[in-house]
Structure formats: C-alpha cells, structure tokens
Write a structure and sequence with these properties.
Blueprint: H1 12-20, E1 23-26, E2 34-37, H2 46-58, H3 61-72, H4 74-78, H5 92-113, H6 122-144, H7 148-176, H8 180-211, H9 213-245, H10 267-297, H11 302-309, H12 311-330, H13 333-353, H14 359-383, H15 386-414, H16 424-461, H17 470-489, H18 493-499
Antiparallel strand pairs: 1-2
Helix pairs in contact: 2-7, 2-8, 2-9, 3-7, 3-8, 3-9, 3-10, 5-7, 5-15, 6-7, 6-9, 7-8, 8-9, 8-11, 8-12, 10-11, 10-14, 10-15, 10-16, 12-14, 13-14, 13-16, 14-15
Length: 500
C-alpha cells in the first residue's frame, strides 16, 4: 500500500476544506505524497478520459474503410462495368485472394501478439497505425499501376496492422475504463470502427464512377492517415495521463499463451470456435461479392447494389446496442446463438429460392450478425476460467481469420470463369455459379447451426451456465459467496466440537 501523507496532524475539517478547494493527496512517481491541484483536464476526471476515448474510437475507422473498398470496387477490379477501361482485369480467384491475404496476415500477427508483453500500449499503437497506412498506400498505388502483386502485398500489410491495432485499441479502453462505463465504451468503439465500412458503401461507388476507382483507394489511404493522427493524439494523452498517475488506472490483463498452459479447454469451447469460424466464413466473403451479385442477379445499378450490400453494416450498427443489452439482460446465450444461425440459413434460402427485394434479407443478415456475435463472444467467458477467457477469445479470433481466408479462396474458385455475361450461354454460367455459391453459404450456415445445437446440448449435459438468465446468474453468484463465507466462518468448528 502507498505511504500515508507525512502530515498526520491535519484535522478532518482541514482535509475536507483542502478537498473542496481542489487540493488532494496524489502520489507522484519518484516523489513523496504532496498536495497538488486537480484541474478539469486531470487524468482522473471524466473530460480527459472521454476525449482520449473519442480519439481512440477513430484509430480503426480508416483501416475498416480500406478493408471493404474492394467489395465496392469489384466490378472495376475484375472487368470494369460495361468493359470500363479503368478496370484492371483480375480473375475471381485473384480478387478473392485479396481478402484471403488480409485474413491470413491478420491471423499471423495475432499469433505473434500472443508472445508479446503489451505493458506499453503506445509504441504498438503507433507501429500498427503506420503499418495500416502503409498497406492502404500500397494498395492504392498497386491499383494505379495495375499491379496485382502490389495489390496483394498491400492487402497483406493492411491485414498485419488492422487486427493488431484493434486489439491494442481494446486494451487502451480497458486501461482507462471499468465497470458499466467499460461496456458502453466498448460498444461505442466497435460502432465507430464500423462507420468506416458504412461510409465506404455509401460514397465510394459514386467516387469511383465520377473520379475513378483509384481515387476511391487514395481516399482510403487518406482516411488511414487521419486515423494515424488520431493514434498520435491518443498516445500523447496516454503519456500525459500515465505520467501524472504513475500507471494506467486499470492494468490490462495479460493475453499471452501462458494463460492457457495447463488449462483444459472444454468441448463446448471448441464448438463455439467452430460456430465462429463457420459464421464469419459466410459474412465477410459474401459482403466481398455482394455488390456484383446484386448487379448480375437483381439487375441493380452499381450505386444501388453497393448501398444494398452495405445494409448488413447499417442494420448491425443500429441494432448492436439494443441486441447487446438484450443479450446481457435475457441471458440464454446458447439459444440466441442458435436463433442467429438459423436466421442466417433463412437469409440465404431467401436469396436462392425467392424473388424478395434484396434489402430485406440483407437487413435480416445484419440483425443476425449482431445477435450471433453478441451471444457468441460473450459465451466464451461462461465456458472458460476468468484468467483464460481473454486468451480464449484471441485464439478464437485467430481461428476465425484462418477460416475467413480459406472461405474467401473457396468463393473465388466457385466463381472462377463466370464473371462476364455477354451471351446467353455466359449468362447461364454466371447464374449457375451464383446458385452454387448460395448453396455453399447455406452449407456453412447449416454447420454454424449444428455447432450452436451442440453447444446447447453440451451445456445442458454438463450443467453449464451459458444459458443462465441474468437472475439465475446473480443467484448463483450469491450462493457461491454465501458458501465461501460459511467455509471461512466454520473453519475452527471441528476443534471446538472435540473440546466439548
């Protein structure tokens, strides 16, 4: 414990007067206790933390904007709309390899982060922000000179930076927030990050049509530059705050592989991983090809198709706070996970077997995205020990990105050779390739649903707490506390009874 103030003769009245006048006892690193003035912008005050966290929310906006750019520019990257000469003629395999390179590089960097002690968050934040900016610049220049390999390298570099930057961003939130504020700020951070994808689907197609697709890519690099500037501000504020306090208000928990050593991961956890891998192997690859799907199968214009493809993000951002609150209040995470997976099955069945307007299943897909993600990731903490929950989530993220990369390549192979529909024969081949792709996504959705069923069955067989309601969870925690207190209070009872 820290030493008490040197002056112990000050009366309680004097202490109260000192606190009311803004004078409090604060431990300065390397100095004794002394009376210092606490201003409005002191690191212990709310305005300082809110400003730091607002800038922290912005550091991944540019990266997520750049991540989704190929989904909007697919028509130009492959053949160009109506054989637009600004297209660079990538095959479907080459196009989807851009997403695979991003996902696999992301997984590699997450695996490396497991072996790093991230006690200092500022240097990694600046490093990964710089990597994201370099990847976005390389991607834009690669398209400008029509170099597939530079495009691929730029996407890999962007993947190296984005996943790692997201982890550092979340740890910065954990370092400065706690309690109910922590949950609120986490949700706000995720929402702001996804705004990059929303802006991309709303505006990038117009920019590509009127100013050229390479201009849209350069805009992505510019936005990454602004995110880098936000990261610099966050690091300066963090340096100032930790300098005044001596350390972060909350020390982030270590997320190293050592936390999982000797810990037996349950079968429920591995089915949760399978559910996550199969679910995200649907979402990201489908969003990557959705705009072209709507152009070729629904006869939408380019702008209409990209905005329809973005409905998944519009719905997810709007419903995430409501759904996350509902999941936390209701509980039943295994059941809600199964509902989300079954809804995803219904979405792709609607695409394949009905002629319903495309925005309706896309909005449903966004809602199922929010529901499944909220139930899935929060369920990890209920099937793993507290010290293993953080590493368990990161390990699940690593497996998820490996699955997204493999699924992206599978989508490219399924559509290979069926990208142009200039003749009736080619149109039939294109329609057949899209049907096969929808069957593929339906199969993954079925696997996700089966994994969710297994999670519920195993949880029931082992009397787990994944499907506890909030009230049941509180009652169990109270029972554990009462049992622990009873054990402590009766530790000397055997000796007493023997003496009697």
């Amino acid at each position: 414990f820290p030493r008490r103030p040197s002056s112990l003769r000050q009366s309680s009245m004097e202490m109260s007067a000192a606190q009311l006048s803004g004078q409090v006892y604060t431990r300065i690193p390397g100095e004794d206790w002394e009376s210092v003035s606490v201003g409005v912008f002191h690191p212990t005050r709310v305005p300082f933390r809110l400003l730091l966290l607002c800038f922290n929310c912005l550091i991944t906006v540019g990266a997520y904007f750049a991540f989704d750019l190929p989904a909007v520019l697919q028509l130009w990257m492959e053949n160009g709309p109506d054989n637009d000469p600004r297209g660079i003629g990538l095959t479907s395999i080459e196009f989807m390899s851009l997403y695979a390179a991003y996902a696999w590089a992301n997984a590699v960097m997450i695996a490396l982060l497991f072996h790093l002690n991230l006690s200092n968050l500022r240097l990694p934040m600046l490093t990964f922000s710089t990597i994201c900016l370099g990847g976005a610049l390389a991607t834009a220049y690669g398209y400008h000179i029509s170099s597939y390999w530079l495009l691929l390298g730029g996407r890999a570099v962007l993947g190296f930076g984005t996943g790692s930057l997201t982890i550092i961003q979340n740890r910065m939130v954990s370092a400065w927030c706690r309690g109910k504020m922590l949950t609120l700020v986490f949700g706000f951070t995720v929402g702001c990050s996804r705004l990059g994808g929303v802006f991309n689907f709303l505006f990038s197609a117009d920019i590509a049509t009127h100013q050229g697709p390479d201009q849209a890519l350069w805009n992505g690099a510019t936005l990454c530059g602004l995110s880098f500037a936000a990261a610099v501000i966050v690091c300066l504020m963090d340096y100032y705050g930790t300098g005044r306090l001596g350390q972060h208000p909350n020390r982030p928990v270590s997320w190293q592989f050592s936390n999982l050593e000797g810990y037996q991961l349950s079968s429920t956890y591995w089915f949760l991983c399978l559910c996550a891998v199969s679910f995200y192997a649907i979402i990201f690859p489908f969003v990557a090809v959705a705009s072209k799907f709507f152009v070729q199968m629904y006869r939408y214009s380019i702008n209409e198709s990209t905005r329809t493809a973005g409905c998944i993000y519009y719905a997810a951002i709007l419903t995430s706070p409501i759904i996350a609150t509902a999941v936390d209040s209701i509980g039943r995470r295994g059941v809600l996970m199964l509902v989300g997976a079954c809804t995803t099955c219904g979405v792709f069945a609607a695409f394949r077997f009905s002629s319903i307007a495309a925005y309706i299943p896309m909005v449903l897909l966004g809602c199922s995205y929010s529901l499944t993600a909220s139930a899935l990731w929060s369920a990890v903490g209920f099937c793993l020990d507290k010290t293993a929950a953080g590493p368990g989530m990161v390990l699940m993220t690593l497996l998820q990105m490996l699955g997204v990369g493999g699924s992206s390549m599978a989508v490219g192979y399924l559509r290979h050779g069926h990208t142009i529909a200039n003749t009736p024969e080619e149109a039939d081949g294109v329609a057949e390739s899209w049907d096969n792709l929808l069957y593929y996504f339906l199969g993954l959705a079925g696997l996700c649903s089966l994994s969710a069923v297994m999670v519920n069955l195993l949880n029931y067989a082992k009397a787990g707490n994944i499907n506890f309601t909030a009230a049941e969870r509180r009652r169990r925690q109270e029972a554990i506390l009462i049992s622990a207190n009873a054990t402590v209070n009766t530790s000397e009872l055997p000796e007493l009874s023997m003496s009697r």
